[in-house]
Design a protein that fits this description.
Layout: E1 3-4, H1 6-16, H2 26-32, E2 36-37, H3 43-51, H4 57-66, E3 71-74, E4 80-83, H5 85-113, H6 120-138, H7 143-149, E5 156-159, E6 166-169, H8 171-180, E7 184-189, E8 198-202, H9 203-207, H10 216-231, H11 236-243, H12 247-255, E9 259-264, E10 269-273, E11 287-290, H13 304-307, H14 311-314, E12 324-327, E13 330-337, E14 343-347, H15 353-370, H16 382-388
Parallel strand pairs: 1-9
Antiparallel strand pairs: 2-4, 3-4, 5-6, 7-8, 9-10, 11-12, 12-13, 13-14
């Protein structure tokens, strides 16, 4: 069994995540990495910029909203990703459809338990029919606009119990379900690039056609092949965590591919594609400032080989990554912004003088790229919060 040690894993990461050498296009970066995280609306912009240093915010908006060569969708682990329409079809079949099925059952149960409808399925289907009709007639609509056009979406539903009871309208639940079922996608935000209040639009209108229907097994194998190409080697725990698949779905996807087991430092066993066992080396020395929830930082469950002991400072209590500073495939610190938008960082381990100069240069470039705009990560790490007040 071949051994792929930490040094080679870091080399693979740098090359295949376009950090050692830039991508040609943002579509190349999104497709090769399976998707760029977008649960925090600003993350995808900073992630794309890290892989295409000359990319402007307008360039990404053009790909998302004008050319529509990229699409924002619910994917693995219920997380928002920006990816290509082709990759979106595999993600939808392999991951998102299962999320939608669970959400539909949950809504129907709430409707019936709270006496809103004796037949929750019929109520929900009617609400979906009216919602889709409004979207097809009026185009892109925000949730508040939908609620005015489709009064049934104003129906209130209770969550929790006792002192923890909350009440909310059905708009959020219905549009979330429709997005998970692939019927609608998020269009332009109502505000600027830092806004997460998106307008909704039918998928067939936005992309020119519905997402192709791909058999689950075929899509799962395709998705795993893409992940192993960019993130391999990965352990069974890494794959299951990243996809949120069952053991059976994971094993079936592995069995559908030609894979090889490799030994990892620390005694774990990882998987790589059978045609990807040749050694990967990179002489490039690189630094990167990656945003919170970046796809690289969140790419594996078992992270010691690139994160070391820095997790408590750079992740929140729920396991969400904050902004990180990288050198040659390992995390060495974190960053934030001051009130005036200046990027500030702290290293958590020593680097040599030449590397420190590269870090400072990249900090200055990122500050200039922000152009005075200050972002606040949706999930804030201890170090990021501390730096923001410095």
């Amino acid at each position: 069994m071949r051994t792929i040690g930490v040094a080679e894993r870091r080399a693979r990461l740098g090359v295949r995540h376009f950090l050692a050498k830039p991508a040609q296009t943002v579509e190349d970066a999104a497709a090769a990495m399976v998707g760029l995280h977008s649960s925090d609306p600003t993350s995808v912009f900073v992630s794309a910029r890290a892989r295409l240093p000359r990319m402007t915010r307008e360039d990404l908006e053009d790909a998302l909203y004008e050319r529509r060569s990229l699409v924002r969708m619910l994917g693995m682990r219920g997380t928002l990703f920006v990816t290509t329409p082709t990759m979106a079809a595999d993600i939808d079949a392999a991951c998102t459809k299962a999320i939608a099925a669970v959400e539909r059952r949950r809504i129907v149960k709430l409707l019936q338990e709270q006496g809103i409808a004796r037949d929750g399925d019929a109520w929900l289907n009617a609400a979906i029919r009216d919602t889709m009709a409004a979207l097809h007639e009026h185009g892109e609509l925000a949730g508040a606009q939908l609620s005015k056009l489709v009064p049934v979406l104003n129906t209130k539903i209770r969550y929790g119990s006792g002192v923890w009871t909350a009440e909310g309208g059905m708009t959020t639940r219905v549009v979330f379900l429709l997005a998970a079922e692939g019927a609608i996608v998020r269009g332009r935000p109502r505000g600027t690039w830092i806004s997460g209040q998106y307008r909704w639009v039918p998928t067939d209108t936005w992309l020119g056609a519905p997402l192709p229907a791909v058999p689950t097994a075929e899509a799962s194998a395709a998705l795993l092949r893409a992940w192993l190409t960019a993130y391999g080697p990965g352990t069974m725990a890494d794959i299951r965590w990243w996809t949120a698949w069952t053991v059976r779905q994971t094993k079936d996807a592995l069995d559908a591919l030609e894979v090889e087991e490799v030994a990892l430092d620390g005694g774990d066993t990882g998987f790589v594609l059978a045609d990807d066992v040749a050694p990967v080396r990179s002489r490039a020395h690189w630094v990167a400032f990656l945003p919170g929830l970046d796809a690289t930082t969140m790419g594996w469950k078992e992270r010691d080989w690139y994160l070391g002991a820095h997790g408590p400072a750079l992740f929140d209590r729920n396991g969400n990554a904050g902004p990180t500073v990288w050198v040659d495939g390992r995390v060495v610190g974190g960053w934030s912004q001051r009130e005036n938008g200046d990027v500030v960082y702290r290293l958590l381990e020593r680097v040599d003088a030449a590397t420190k100069n590269k870090v400072n240069t990249e900090r200055d470039r990122l500050t200039a790229w922000f152009g005075g705009t200050r972002i606040t990560p949706r999930f804030r790490s201890p170090l990021e919060k501390e730096l923001a007040q410095s």
